[in-house]
Automatic annotation (TrEMBL):
Residues 1-26, 110-152 are annotated as: Disordered. It comes from the Eukaryota. Residues 110-119, 128-137 have a biased composition (Polar residues). This is Uncharacterized protein.
């Protein structure tokens, strides 16, 4: 057996179904944020928690939705992120902010702080994509593909 303390726990699978009617494949062993309720002993991942018909879960979801803070960010269609989402992108909204992680640069106070930072301007990739369009990755992107730009 494994020496890990969590190896004795029974794996829990999400009881929800996808829009295509297929059983969800997320389990309590997944490291995804969406699996947190399963790791805590729940029966549904965050993607499918609305399918949980228990009164307590439905009341909690309604309360979250009613009290949810919607991102004030501007995109082509308007932001759809709310503080009720259990994703890191919604953290600033849960802390009382008006913008999600994607749109926080639209917040004037954030922009002022960012402009005062001593970091050099972001480097932009000069390459093209497989489709022939200009690459949009910059050195300040938090992805592995941006590492060469960050390293010079």
């Amino acid at each position: 057996g494994r020496a890990s303390g969590s190896s004795n726990r029974r794996e829990r699978s999400c009881q929800g179904t996808t829009k295509q009617g297929v059983p969800c494949r997320i389990t309590s062993r997944s490291e995804m944020d969406a699996a947190a309720p399963l790791r805590a002993g729940g029966s549904f991942c965050t993607f499918h928690e609305a399918q949980d018909t228990s009164a307590a879960t439905q009341l909690a979801l309604l309360t979250q939705q009613r009290e949810a803070r919607r991102c004030q960010g501007l995109t082509g269609k308007g932001a759809c992120v709310t503080s009720a989402l259990r994703y890191k992108v919604a953290d600033p909204l849960r802390r009382g902010g008006n913008y999600c992680k994607y749109h926080e640069t639209q917040d004037r106070s954030f922009s002022q702080l960012a402009s005062q930072a001593t970091q050099p301007p972001a480097r932009r990739c000069r390459g093209t994509t497989k489709q022939g369009t200009t690459c949009r990755i910059t050195s300040d992107a938090e992805m592995d593909a941006a590492r060469p730009l960050r390293e010079g």
